[in-house]
Amino acid sequence: MTEVFNTWVRDVARRLQEPMAADDGYLTGTHQRYSAVLVAGYVNGAIRDVVRLKLLEYGDQFPDKMPEVLKASGPLTVTNGALLRPVDCLVVLGVTSGSLFYRRLPGRSIAAALSGLDPALTGSATEPVFYEEGRYLYTLGKTDGDVVLHYIIKHQDIVISTAASGNGKWYTGANGAYTLATKKITGTFSTVLAAGDVGKNIMFRSATKVHHARISSFIDATNVTVAGSDLPAGNIAAGSVIQMLVSDISPETTDLQLSEHWKTEVEELAVQKGILDARRGLLNG
Q: According to CATH, what is the number of the domain 169-246?
């Protein structure tokens, strides 16, 4: 489920005074003026706006301020000085090839470099340069070989999802244990642990204490590691982890990755989009 994105959509709808008898009813289609799909469009647009505004505001400091929207590509092959950028690339921040760093050619210097009027701009095999035009990245000085692009991700629209993925699992066992140093739960339980459990919520009990976490990795049928802020403060001895409940609702990899730090600005811009639509008479009701 797109849990984080759904929450942002509901919060914006409330700011727009959309009545809600129940959150789930709103997300699945019950509305008066602002449908959940419409508000999701506002939030997606506002996320793109915030990234662009912060890029202008922070400049070279942008990577330090919004690391969650940065990405390094795998090896990409430059042929005859040209490379089609990845579809999710908004702006290229840097180009590397092993220990080699490509310098960005300023836009005002591209024509002079291509015309050969200033040889200092054309780069070399040891000091290559790059520039962007349209969806392509071009290199000078070193025009073939594999490179890695370091870039800002272009936000792709997230859609609301309310569908659960099935029934959860109830585990019981006599020898369950928890190791603090590795955050590992181990034991032979009534139901076999599986690789598909990674990412799911887990609750486990020892005596009268209950802990909540998320399964972070699958080791084998009797061992998983967990992550979260509600983990035991110490080891739990073998035989003391006696029950586990695992939710079968997995978070989607397409859910919102933007830090909660930016929620206020995204929400404000999304609300402004909704108010503008109302003033333009574009809403029903």
A: 2.40.30
